[in-house]
Amino acid sequence: MTDQAVTAREGFVELDWDGRRQRVEFARVGVDDPAAPLLVFLHEGLGSVSMWRDFPQQMAQALGWRGLVYSRPAYGRSTPKRAEDRWRPDFMHRQAQEVLPQVLAALGHAPSSSGERLWLFGHSDGGSIALLHAAAFPDQVAGLVVCAPHLFVEALTVASIEEAREAYASTDLRAKLAKYHDDPDSAFRGWNDIWLDPDFLAWNIEAEVASVRCPVLAVQGQDDQYGTMAQIDRIAQGLPAGQVELLKLDACGHSPHRDQPKALIDRVVDFVHRRAGPDSRSK
């Protein structure tokens, strides 16, 4: 790991993970100020650095913070999944407890060396990963924003993912995903296969979420085709009163940052300033 790679605005870092050397695509957004807080963006189950478009830049700029975006292994321009590999039901735990800490360390944000307490912004699977990371490392996370996170498997989610499987086989969905992933089969199959695996139906992270100690803003669209309000309601029910704030958006599907970006950014800025204090632009 070189100093140039650590300080670059975009590029790749390399990790030893899952039995091999893998590269991870990253981009830095927001202010270029090492004293500003860091917000790490964790993408959805079919996401990548490029699929966020300019939302991380808008969000970080509105806060006056630094932002870090990366594509998990198998996504974007990161190392693709091998065709024979099959993810296990603990795949989000491994991303939260193994991959994210390695990415942070490779980019100079390891809490043991930097002293930083991170904020995480996670969408869908990325929201679940954010919650799992905060539960595993409660002293290292200052706050969470989770949009359309999954805490357990719902019939609605499975039905929508089955529809996505049919669309991938019979429409131009693969070609559309190829705009954001070097290997769209890697991204799609990894996500789709595990969510439709019978062994995944019992997946539930409510016990882990009960260990989260930081403030949480949980966001869900009223028209989300991949999850119901029960997902974020369970976060509020499982944590002490006052720790969690809920934002339920009308005219909004599974991606609040695309469907309602202004409402989301405005609420996140308000949430952060209240929870992190009036000097949150620099701390």
TrEMBL record:
GO terms for molecular function: hydrolase activity. Keywords: Hydrolase. It comes from the Bacteria. Gene3D superfamilies: alpha/beta hydrolase (3.40.50.1820). Residues 39-266 form the AB hydrolase-1 domain. Pfam families: Abhydrolase_6. InterPro entries: AB_hydrolase_1, AB_hydrolase_fold. This is Alpha/beta hydrolase.
